[in-house]
Amino acid sequence: MTTITSERNLSASLPAINFNTLGLMFITGFFATVAFDLWGQVISPALGFAKLSPHGLAQSLLGSLGLPNTAFAGYFVHFYIVGLIGYPIGWMFIFAPLWQRVVGDTHWFIPSAIYGFGLWVFAIGGITSLAGLPFFLNFSGIVWVALIGHVLYGIVMVAMLKLVERQQNS
Hints:
Distance between the termini: 13 Å
Shape: globular
Number of helices: 5
Low-confidence stretches: 1-8
Largest sheet: none
Mean pLDDT: 91
Order of helices and strands: HHHHH
Number of strands: 0
Strand content: under 5%
Helix content: over 70%
Protein backbone atom coordinates (compact mmCIF):
# COMPACT_ATOMS: atom_id res chain seq x y z
CA MET A 1 0.00 0.00 0.00
CA THR A 2 1.21 3.49 -0.83
CA THR A 3 2.18 5.63 2.13
CA ILE A 4 -0.12 8.62 2.55
CA THR A 5 1.61 10.32 5.48
CA SER A 6 4.23 9.48 8.01
CA GLU A 7 5.94 11.15 10.93
CA ARG A 8 8.28 13.20 8.74
CA ASN A 9 7.27 12.39 5.16
CA LEU A 10 4.04 13.80 3.75
CA SER A 11 3.79 11.72 0.63
CA ALA A 12 6.50 9.54 -0.84
CA SER A 13 4.34 9.11 -3.93
CA LEU A 14 0.78 9.61 -5.01
CA PRO A 15 -1.64 7.15 -3.45
CA ALA A 16 -3.10 4.49 -5.70
CA ILE A 17 -6.62 5.20 -6.88
CA ASN A 18 -8.54 2.27 -5.41
CA PHE A 19 -11.16 1.40 -2.80
CA ASN A 20 -8.62 1.78 0.03
CA THR A 21 -7.89 5.35 -1.02
CA LEU A 22 -11.59 6.09 -1.38
CA GLY A 23 -12.15 4.66 2.09
CA LEU A 24 -9.33 6.80 3.48
CA MET A 25 -10.88 9.88 1.92
CA PHE A 26 -14.28 9.10 3.44
CA ILE A 27 -12.95 8.27 6.91
CA THR A 28 -10.59 11.21 7.20
CA GLY A 29 -13.03 13.60 5.52
CA PHE A 30 -15.80 12.45 7.85
CA PHE A 31 -13.85 13.18 11.02
CA ALA A 32 -12.52 16.47 9.65
CA THR A 33 -16.00 17.61 8.58
CA VAL A 34 -17.45 16.67 11.96
CA ALA A 35 -14.69 18.71 13.66
CA PHE A 36 -15.38 21.64 11.30
CA ASP A 37 -19.13 21.53 11.94
CA LEU A 38 -18.74 20.98 15.69
CA TRP A 39 -16.55 24.07 15.87
CA GLY A 40 -18.64 26.23 13.53
CA GLN A 41 -22.13 25.24 14.55
CA VAL A 42 -21.80 24.34 18.25
CA ILE A 43 -18.62 25.59 19.95
CA SER A 44 -18.27 28.96 18.22
CA PRO A 45 -21.86 30.10 18.90
CA ALA A 46 -21.62 28.79 22.47
CA LEU A 47 -18.60 31.09 22.93
CA GLY A 48 -20.58 34.03 21.55
CA PHE A 49 -19.07 34.02 18.05
CA ALA A 50 -20.78 33.53 14.69
CA LYS A 51 -22.43 30.28 13.66
CA LEU A 52 -21.26 28.78 10.38
CA SER A 53 -23.72 27.78 7.70
CA PRO A 54 -21.61 25.98 5.10
CA HIS A 55 -24.65 24.32 3.58
CA GLY A 56 -26.02 27.83 2.98
CA LEU A 57 -22.92 28.74 0.99
CA ALA A 58 -23.30 25.55 -1.03
CA GLN A 59 -26.99 26.40 -1.64
CA SER A 60 -26.03 29.89 -2.83
CA LEU A 61 -23.45 28.45 -5.20
CA LEU A 62 -25.88 25.88 -6.58
CA GLY A 63 -28.50 28.58 -7.10
CA SER A 64 -26.03 30.88 -8.88
CA LEU A 65 -25.24 27.99 -11.24
CA GLY A 66 -28.93 27.39 -11.95
CA LEU A 67 -28.93 24.06 -10.11
CA PRO A 68 -31.39 22.86 -7.47
CA ASN A 69 -30.54 24.74 -4.28
CA THR A 70 -32.64 23.08 -1.63
CA ALA A 71 -31.39 22.63 1.93
CA PHE A 72 -30.78 18.94 1.17
CA ALA A 73 -28.68 19.84 -1.87
CA GLY A 74 -26.64 22.29 0.22
CA TYR A 75 -25.97 19.72 2.94
CA PHE A 76 -25.16 17.07 0.34
CA VAL A 77 -22.61 19.28 -1.41
CA HIS A 78 -21.05 20.48 1.87
CA PHE A 79 -20.77 17.12 3.60
CA TYR A 80 -20.36 14.57 0.83
CA ILE A 81 -18.93 16.31 -2.21
CA VAL A 82 -16.65 18.78 -0.42
CA GLY A 83 -15.98 17.23 3.01
CA LEU A 84 -15.62 13.56 2.08
CA ILE A 85 -14.28 13.83 -1.46
CA GLY A 86 -13.13 17.26 -2.66
CA TYR A 87 -10.93 18.46 0.20
CA PRO A 88 -9.30 15.03 0.77
CA ILE A 89 -8.52 14.79 -2.96
CA GLY A 90 -6.95 18.22 -2.77
CA TRP A 91 -4.64 17.09 0.02
CA MET A 92 -3.77 13.61 -1.21
CA PHE A 93 -3.30 14.33 -4.91
CA ILE A 94 -2.36 18.01 -5.11
CA PHE A 95 -1.16 19.77 -1.95
CA ALA A 96 0.83 17.03 -0.16
CA PRO A 97 2.74 15.93 -3.29
CA LEU A 98 3.43 19.57 -4.22
CA TRP A 99 4.58 20.37 -0.67
CA GLN A 100 6.84 17.33 -0.73
CA ARG A 101 8.34 18.34 -4.04
CA VAL A 102 8.85 22.02 -3.17
CA VAL A 103 9.59 21.97 0.58
CA GLY A 104 10.63 18.38 1.14
CA ASP A 105 10.29 16.26 4.26
CA THR A 106 8.57 18.07 7.11
CA HIS A 107 6.30 17.10 9.94
CA TRP A 108 2.67 16.90 8.82
CA PHE A 109 1.25 19.56 11.20
CA ILE A 110 2.43 22.78 9.53
CA PRO A 111 1.44 21.83 5.97
CA SER A 112 -1.95 20.56 7.17
CA ALA A 113 -2.63 23.94 8.81
CA ILE A 114 -1.46 25.76 5.68
CA TYR A 115 -3.72 23.51 3.60
CA GLY A 116 -6.65 24.45 5.85
CA PHE A 117 -5.80 28.12 5.37
CA GLY A 118 -5.83 27.56 1.62
CA LEU A 119 -9.22 25.89 1.88
CA TRP A 120 -10.49 28.98 3.70
CA VAL A 121 -9.19 31.28 0.94
CA PHE A 122 -10.77 29.00 -1.67
CA ALA A 123 -14.15 28.72 0.09
CA ILE A 124 -14.60 32.16 1.62
CA GLY A 125 -12.65 34.17 -0.94
CA GLY A 126 -13.48 32.26 -4.10
CA ILE A 127 -16.68 30.28 -3.74
CA THR A 128 -18.52 33.16 -2.04
CA SER A 129 -17.71 35.37 -5.02
CA LEU A 130 -18.89 32.70 -7.48
CA ALA A 131 -22.08 32.36 -5.43
CA GLY A 132 -22.79 36.08 -5.80
CA LEU A 133 -21.98 36.89 -2.18
CA PRO A 134 -19.68 39.72 -1.04
CA PHE A 135 -15.94 39.10 -1.32
CA PHE A 136 -14.79 37.38 1.88
CA LEU A 137 -18.31 38.09 3.18
CA ASN A 138 -17.16 41.64 3.97
CA PHE A 139 -14.83 40.21 6.61
CA SER A 140 -17.72 39.73 9.03
CA GLY A 141 -17.46 37.55 12.14
CA ILE A 142 -18.38 34.40 10.25
CA VAL A 143 -15.19 34.75 8.15
CA TRP A 144 -12.93 34.35 11.18
CA VAL A 145 -14.93 31.40 12.53
CA ALA A 146 -14.61 29.84 9.07
CA LEU A 147 -10.84 30.43 9.13
CA ILE A 148 -10.49 28.45 12.35
CA GLY A 149 -12.87 25.79 11.01
CA HIS A 150 -10.95 25.27 7.77
CA VAL A 151 -7.57 25.13 9.50
CA LEU A 152 -9.07 22.67 11.99
CA TYR A 153 -10.42 20.62 9.08
CA GLY A 154 -6.95 20.39 7.50
CA ILE A 155 -5.28 19.38 10.76
CA VAL A 156 -7.90 16.78 11.70
CA MET A 157 -7.96 15.28 8.21
CA VAL A 158 -4.20 14.79 8.08
CA ALA A 159 -4.06 13.60 11.71
CA MET A 160 -6.63 10.95 10.82
CA LEU A 161 -4.61 9.93 7.74
CA LYS A 162 -1.60 9.56 10.00
CA LEU A 163 -3.56 7.54 12.56
CA VAL A 164 -4.98 5.19 9.93
CA GLU A 165 -1.54 4.70 8.42
CA ARG A 166 -0.03 3.93 11.84
CA GLN A 167 -2.75 1.32 12.43
CA GLN A 168 -2.12 -0.25 9.03
CA ASN A 169 1.64 -0.41 9.61
CA SER A 170 1.41 -2.04 13.05
